[in-house]
């Protein structure tokens, strides 16, 4: 139990007679400020307590001279707590122009564990000690599933009409196809959202807005993706730039399309097979893993924040609002580290869609993929309150115009979509398939924006058709090849 703040010298003397204990610590002056705040950190990680400066070792109050700089030093030292804290500071005159300084620290917080100067502390009896790494990691995991987070608060201004039903069932179909959503789902949107953990007590959660909102209101400017291709190694000149607001899965698809447009596909001839083999500049799965991490681990409470993708001649940068989750440092990400999720509800839906695992090895696998591809593993850093991941690449390789003729990708803009068109037509020759099934056969973990464009183009040309033409947006919708499509495919196969 935290003692009440004494409001008179008499009350202070009575409190001091109880002696130091699990919720009370004495310091002779703010010359011991660092040690006093370590104890405050321990109180934050426990049931709270009080730190009193200006008390002799024998428990007598002698106070200290308190000037403006004294209080300024205390408040500045509070910035060394993580997460940020708000600890009330009181002064009590003890005579001879001297004051005792009292810090009353609240405990039992959803933000536990707290650190001071990068270390966590705990209180055992009347002693403050460093918290063990094992206990600290356990508390981190508990905090990740705390009761009050930005993502699990009701989005009071959002109704079911604001949720993109087609997007919800698209992700549900993917989750079922990869075996991460079993059992009946039903057609009721509230029931399905509840099954995904984004609808509770009759309220749509903010996580649902991030994942499935149909359109984004001014209250959610953080659901944004910023992309740019710069000429050279600085930001002096844009070659291409885009800013998009939308649900997270569609933003991920847009980011991957942007990478496809601006990454070359260097190729070589395989002698035994006599064909060109295209090797992406950065392994697509590695890039996708980092992009997914940016969407699921970013701090959505920063209203002006976003995920940013910047492509330069010599590197690719992925920025996300907010630092890495508390307890995770940039240096830890290329070795074994605990899995700490800032947004576990959002992360769970990405898991169900087959885009992440739950073992905290994502960044380790990225490093392995990069080494296998012959490039350096990405670099991780925190800059200005944001998390930054940087892929280093040979100078000039991100600019297709710099490639030698023998390794230059096909320059016809329609070449890649045309290749996918042929693959889609081939797949539909075997029978009707849904968009999710087509995506799976194409080895896509998520239905890509490119596949959506190809399907629309094939429908417009009359090469494929809906199996349920009266309900084009039905979640049971599939596609089949038409006679014209079969004829077109035959011509393409012959000409190839």
Give the strand tally. 20
Mean pLDDT: 85
CATH architecture of the largest domain: 2-Layer Sandwich
- CATH topology value of the largest domain: Heat Shock Protein 90
- Specify the helix fraction band: 25-40%
What profile does the largest beta sheet have?
6 strands, mixed
Which of globular, elongated, flat, extended, rod-shaped describes the shape?
elongated
Rg from Cα: 29 Å
| Distance between the first and last residues' Cα | 80 Å
The portion of residues forming beta strands comes to 15-25%
What is the total domain count? Answer: 4
User: What structural category arises from helix and sheet content?
Assistant: alpha+beta
SSE layout:
Blueprint lengths: L8 H9 L6 E4 L5 H12 L4 E5 L14 H10 L3 E2 L6 E7 L2 E8 L9 E2 L4 E4 L2 E4 L2 H12 L20 H13 L11 H7 L3 E2 L2 E2 L1 H7 L11 E7 L7 E8 L2 H15 L4 E4 L4 E4 L5 H14 L9 E5 L3 E7 L22 H9 L9 H11 L6 E5 L2 E7 L22 H15 L5 H7 L7 H13 L2 E3 L12 E3 L1 H13 L1
Parallel strand pairs: 1-2, 11-15
Antiparallel strand pairs: 2-5, 3-6, 4-5, 7-8, 9-10, 11-12, 13-14, 15-16, 16-18, 17-18, 19-20
Helix pairs in contact: 8-9, 9-11, 12-14, 12-15
How would you characterize the overall build of this protein?
- Helices cover 34% and strands 19% of the residues.
- It has 496 residues and is α+β, with helices and mostly antiparallel strands.
- It folds into four domains: 9-144, 2-Layer Sandwich (Methyltransferase, Cobalt-precorrin-4 Transmethylase, Domain 2), CATH 3.30.950.30; 160-212, no CATH class; 224-407, Heat Shock Protein 90, CATH 3.30.565.60; 415-495, Arc Repressor Mutant, subunit A (Orthogonal Bundle).
- It has a six-stranded mixed sheet with strand order 12-11-15-16-18-17, covered by helices on one side. A four-stranded mixed sheet has the order 1-2-5-4, with helices on one face.
- The model is unreliable at 399-417 (pLDDT under 50).
């Amino acid at each position: 139990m935290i003692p009440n703040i004494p409001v008179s010298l008499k009350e202070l003397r009575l409190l001091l007679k109880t002696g130091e204990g699990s919720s009370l610590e004495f310091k002779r002056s703010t010359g011991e400020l660092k040690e006093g705040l370590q104890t405050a950190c321990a109180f934050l990680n426990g049931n709270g307590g009080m730190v009193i400066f200006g008390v002799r070792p024998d428990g007598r109050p002698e106070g200290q001279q308190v000037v403006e700089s004294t209080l300024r030093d205390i408040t500045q030292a509070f910035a060394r707590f993580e997460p940020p804290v708000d600890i009330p500071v009181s002064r009590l005159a003890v005579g001879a122009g001297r004051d005792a300084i009292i810090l009353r620290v609240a405990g039992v917080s959803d933000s536990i564990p707290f650190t001071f100067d990068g270390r966590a502390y705990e209180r055992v009896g009347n002693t403050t000690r460093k918290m063990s790494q094992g206990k600290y990691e356990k508390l981190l995991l508990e905090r990740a599933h705390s009761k009050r987070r930005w993502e699990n608060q009701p989005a009071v201004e959002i109704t079911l009409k604001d949720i993109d039903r087609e997007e919800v069932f698209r992700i549900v179909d993917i989750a079922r196809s990869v075996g991460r959503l079993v059992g009946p789902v039903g057609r009721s949107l509230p029931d399905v959202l509840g099954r995904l953990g984004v609808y509770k007590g009759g309220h749509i959660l903010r996580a649902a807005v991030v994942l499935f909102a149909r359109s984004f209101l001014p209250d959610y400017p953080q659901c944004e993706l910023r992309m740019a291709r710069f000429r050279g190694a600085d930001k002096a000149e844009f070659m291409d730039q885009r800013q998009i607001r939308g649900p997270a899965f569609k933003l991920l698809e847009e980011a991957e399309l942007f990478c496809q447009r601006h990454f070359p596909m260097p190729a070589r001839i395989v002698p035994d097979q006599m064909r060109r083999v295209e090797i992406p500049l950065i392994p697509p799965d590695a890039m996708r893993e980092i992009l997914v991490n940016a969407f699921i681990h970013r701090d959505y409470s920063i209203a002006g924040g976003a995920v940013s993708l910047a492509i330069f001649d010599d590197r690719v940068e992925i920025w996300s609002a907010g630092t890495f989750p508390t307890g995770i440092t940039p240096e830890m990400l290329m070795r074994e580290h605990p899995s700490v999720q800032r947004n576990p509800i959002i992360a769970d839906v990405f898991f169900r869609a087959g885009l992440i695992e739950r073992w905290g090895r994502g960044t380790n696998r990225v490093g392995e993929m990069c080494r296998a591809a012959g490039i350096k593993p990405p670099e991780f850093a925190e800059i200005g309150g944001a998390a930054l991941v940087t892929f280093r690449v040979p100078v000039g390789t991100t600019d297709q115009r710099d490639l030698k003729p023998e390794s230059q990708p096909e320059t016809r803009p329609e070449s890649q979509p045309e290749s996918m068109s042929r693959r889609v037509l081939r797949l539909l020759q075997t029978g009707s398939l849904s968009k999710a099934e087509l995506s799976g056969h194409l080895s896509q973990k998520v239905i890509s924006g490119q596949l959506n464009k190809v399907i629309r183009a094939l429908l417009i040309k009359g090469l494929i058709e809906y199996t349920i033409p009266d309900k084009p947006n039905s979640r049971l919708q599939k596609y089949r090849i038409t006679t014209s499509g079969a004829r077109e495919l035959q011509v393409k196969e012959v000409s190839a």
